[in-house]
TrEMBL record:
This is Phosphonate degradation operons associated HDIG domain protein. Pfam families: HD (PF01966). NCBIfam families: HDIG. Residues 23-118 form the HD domain. Gene3D superfamilies: Hypothetical protein af1432. The lineage of its organism: Bacteria, Pseudomonadati, Bacteroidota, Cytophagia, Cytophagales. PROSITE patterns: HD (PS51831). PANTHER family: HD DOMAIN-CONTAINING PROTEIN, PTHR40202.
Length: 179
């Protein structure tokens, strides 16, 4: 967990790619939304760490999305956390939160209309809307509903200066999961 705290210490105050919050504010707000919704600790921790792939060192990145973060950050982050002993549930929720956006754009035109400018730009790099076949396959993921919830919180966690628990609160929760 020390490494994860260091990643937030190094890059947590960076802007969250075209949104009015920092990386850390976004992570804390997303976790708080999960907790307020009554999610279990694994889901809350996944919400807190869902964008950890954006904070990883540049040499791990496969490229960047024109100022909107790391390409494939969801897979990078999930793999990084798997290597550190996090559960497959945490990893799957993180690994598929971008697929959830692609799925929701395919299934719901109103969702597409509500995406922020930054989310629209990154969607281009992330493969655009899912095809019908991709959507059917995605719906079979055992964590499908949790992934969609995480996506909802991800979209909402963009409020400047919103009071949240501090990083230590969610780091402690994370440590209990891998303890």
């Amino acid at each position: 967990m020390e490494t994860i705290k260091n990643l937030f210490a190094q890059s947590g105050d960076d802007a969250y790619f075209g949104e009015p919050v920092t990386q850390l504010e976004h992570a804390l707000q997303c976790a708080q939304l999960a907790e307020q919704a009554g999610a279990d600790d694994e889901t809350i921790v996944a919400a807190f760490l869902h964008d950890i792939g954006h904070l990883l060192p540049p040499e791990l990145a496969g490229g960047y999305m024109d100022g909107y973060g790391t390409i494939d950050h969801e897979r990078l982050g999930a793999d990084y956390l798997r290597e550190r002993g996090f559960s497959e549930k945490v990893a799957q929720l993180i690994e598929h939160h971008v697929n959830a956006k692609r799925y929701l754009v395919f299934k719901n035109p109103n969702y597409f209309a509500r995406l922020s400018e930054a989310s629209l730009r990154t969607l281009e790099f992330q493969g655009g809307p899912m095809s019908a076949g991709e959507a059917l396959s995605f719906e079979t993921n055992p964590y499908f509903k949790g992934i969609l919830l995480l996506r909802t919180w991800d979209e909402q966690a963009k409020i400047p200066h919103l009071p949240t628990p501090g990083i230590e609160y969610y780091v402690a929760m994370s440590e209990r999961l891998i303890g």
